[in-house]
Amino acid sequence: xxxxxxxxxxxxxxxxxxxxxxxxxxxxxxxxxxxxxxxxxxxxxxxxxxxxxxxxxxxxxxxxxxxxxxxxxxxxxxxxxxxxxxxxxxxxxxxxxxxxxxxxxxxxxxxxxxxxxxxxxxxxxxxxxxxxxxxxxxxxxxxxxxxxxxxxxxxxxxxxxxxxxxxxxxxxxxxxxxxxxxxxxxxxxxxxxxxxxxxxxxxxxxxxxxxxxxxxxxxxxxxxxxxxxxxxxxxxxxxxxxxxxxxxxxxxxxxxxxxxxxxxxxxxxxxxxxxxxxxxxxxxxxxxxxxxxxxxxxxxxxxxxxxxxxxxxxxxxxxxxxxxxxxxxxxxxxxxxxxxxxxxxxxxxxxxxxxxxxxxxxxxxxxxxxxxxxxxxxxxxxxxxxxxxxxxxxxxxxxxxxxxxxxxxxxxxxxxxxxxxxxxxxxxxxxxxxxxxxxxxxxxxxxxxxxxxxxxxxxxxxxxxxxxxxxxxxxxxxxxxxxxxxxxxxxxxxxxxxxxxxxxxxxxxxxxxxxxxxxxxxxxxxxxxxxxxxxxxxxxxxxxxxxxxxxxxxxxxxxxxxxxxxxxxxxxxxxxxxxxxxxxxxxxxxxxxxxx
Length: 596
Ligand code: PEP
Ligand code: MG
Fold this sequence. Notes:
single chain, alpha/beta, Enzyme I, Chain A, domain 2, TIM Barrel, 8-stranded mixed beta sheet, 8-stranded parallel barrel, 24 helices, binds phosphoenolpyruvate, binds magnesium ion
């Protein structure tokens, strides 16, 4: 019999594979680490230095054989940082203070990194990132966290917390599912997993430590159940579910080319949220009509340094081209919160979600912002592009960003580079301040995209990643619904369009009321598109408006949620089945996919 543990299923589906322990955020692991005597901890650290240096040597040789000289040189520098005698002395001194080998290692390398950061020489400043990387690598070795390594078969990635880049970095044919000790449906690791339709369970808590690296596991993303080392009989008991999963997939595939049109002819654009141009291919397979959110920060993450304008241009151009004439909205870098970027060297903050992040960084860092804007403007030549600014709280921020777009254009003119003049400029509405001010903001922007992941967290003062208060995190809370309704109305009153790119957009029950509110575009992790489309195609706008009226009278979020869950396919009249997306006609055709 397998050992069973349970969490919260956040991405449906059954995954079968071997566990790969991963985790870039070590806080949970450090908390659980039980240090021994100081002498033993010093020995643990010293042994780890030797082992990590040996492992690095092996990797360096492998890379050299594959003619990857640049990567080999980076690891060679890392090896020298591991073998530096001054570092082992510094670690011993830290063990005297904290008594914990992994913490001592992290602190010693952090202190050295900060020393580098203070230097005038740019080269040494750049090495601070490497120092932190090396510290983490050694600490992970002590804590028993494997560096992601892929062997035969598919893996299920598990960890207390996992940085999104870890999941993004694993090839699709090698990863089957995700388990998080912490986290919630809006953690970025899960958002990436959703883009790739990976079944996932979160909030397993410390039970995650009962899973060992390499353990065979069955994960049920519907029930949140995880079977560790299942027996043959247990495996077989899942065959039925796996078959049903395949049948549902086949059913959804049939919806791919049909429009998201209600039974009485209102059409909503269903677009995809992506983290890389490759995601557009998968999104197109699910029937996405363009991209409502390209999280460009993933272009910046997992790198050693700021990507150049030219490199960014290639990525954005590829995404725009793959949208085949549909709108591709590229959000400017949204770093901060739970998306750190080590090479920006932003000092730790008390409240990162309320701190130096997103547009606040971009407006202060021309060196980052202007090349990104230039890259997007240039990509616009190859299709329809939109630029969207994250975390805006007032008109001034939008106007300052717009001014920088003009400056970016001037530079492109000066350099003789082609760019699209008519790239749309919009904002994320993800702060209560922006939502309240949408009647004013709507005069200036081309579009709004409602980011409910943050809007819910800031409106309700509920951390989006905190599993212990997730019962309060509800996008149907009337306070949130009023802000959303206001935003959509403000846009429509000014002849602008409002879309949604937060996770709420992937909730079929939410789609009913959002449509009734007048939303023009819903953008979501692509695997959710068929479910949402099916719901829309089975309801009339008239009925949706009645439902909305009832919902807006309700005083409690749970009541709204429960009520919407009872709404089945209310209208029996079929949507215009033969119509394809391109031939669909509608009186209320969405403006989202149209270029102005
Ligand atoms: C949001 O906040 O709803 C959003 C889409 O942005 P992110 O999840 O990247 O913060
Ligand atoms: Mg956000």
